[in-house]
Amino acid sequence: RFALGDARRPLQETAALVEDIVHTQLITMLHQACEGAALRGSRVISPEDILFLMRRDKRKLARLLKYLQFRDYKSKILKTLEDEDTQAESGPAGANQRRQRLAQDFLVWMDQTGELLSLAERQEIDPIKQERMERLERQTRNMDPAQYAEFCESRQLSFAKKASKFRDWLDCSSLELKPNSMAMEILSYLAYETVAQIVDLSLLVKQEMTAKTNPVSHVISASYIHYNTHAESCPATVEPPSGAIQPCHIREAIRRYNYRHTSAYSRSGMTFLTC
In the chain, N or C terminus with fewer CB closer than 10 Å? Predict the structure, then answer.
């Protein structure tokens, strides 16, 4: 979470709570995706089943489509670098665009207006990603070389790079149908996005708690997160690391999010952070 805006030395209790939230969200999503796959007569959970769950939030769906484009592009680059046989480069067109093509084919089938299909082609600035980048730029301004190297290393961490460990951690044994490899790739992306959104929301709560003790800070934009050195006004039995997100920040952030958003699948009693 350091690379997403948390303190350099986050609390263990906070990490455990984030892990539990992410796991619960993904497993609940998988159970609903499993129902959709069963209705389609599929033997596995496919990307289509996850895309269907995400159809109501166009901004998050657009972010996922951009990610799939990036993964296809990365695969194409790696294949070009590794392949010394020039004949291999003259293979079937679009062979390295399978993720993007699969998503587009499904959106064509599901979307009668073409609105969802056009999401991947839009060149609009994603305000959430823009806000995250601006926050991280402020966070790194006063870092020394060692701190910045640690920050850059943490930026490279990804659930997708540890696919087998991620699958073991997720533990799909309770599911009648299992996700295929491409669905697991999307789930690893959603896991990262869930952590990122938890950090986003928790930092806002943390700033608000700081504002209660600092009468001047309320005039600063909500997107401008402080990285100060004093402890925050949050109930705790031990002094937290400087600027670290605490469990109470996360619980309050989730409570507010659940209050403001209504899940498309309200029967689960859970509002998804990623769809």
Answer: N
Q: How far is 193 from 190, CA to CA, in rounded Å?
A: 5
Total residues belonging to the chain: 275
What are the structure tokens assigned to 242, written together? 């400087």
Contacts of 189 (CB under 8 A, 6+ apart): 64, 67, 159, 160
DSSP 79-100: HHHH---GGGGGS-TTTT-HHH
**Structural element, H or E, at residue 178:** strand 178-179
Report the amino acid identity of residue 8.
Answer: R
Domain definitions of the chain by residue range: 2-268
Q: pTM to 2 decimals?
A: 0.76
H runs (alpha helix) in 83-227: 98-110, 127-140, 145-155, 163-170, 181-213
DSSP 23-76: HHHHHHHHHHHHHHHHHHT-SEE-HHHHHHHTTT-HHHHHHHHHHHHHHHHHHH
* Helix, strand, or coil (residue 10): coil
Q: Which residues of 172-181 are buried (b: 16+ CB within 10 A; e: fewer)?
A: beebebbbee
Report the chain (275 residues): mean pLDDT per 10 consecutive residues.
65 91 94 94 94 86 86 81 57 61 77 69 80 86 87 78 86 92 93 91 87 52 42 46 81 88 52 71
DSSP 8-class letter at 269: S
Q: Cβ distance 46 to 183 under 8 Å? A: yes
Token pair of 59 as six digits: 């901004």
CA distances from 151 to 1, 116, 124, 144, 257 (A): 10, 35, 28, 10, 28
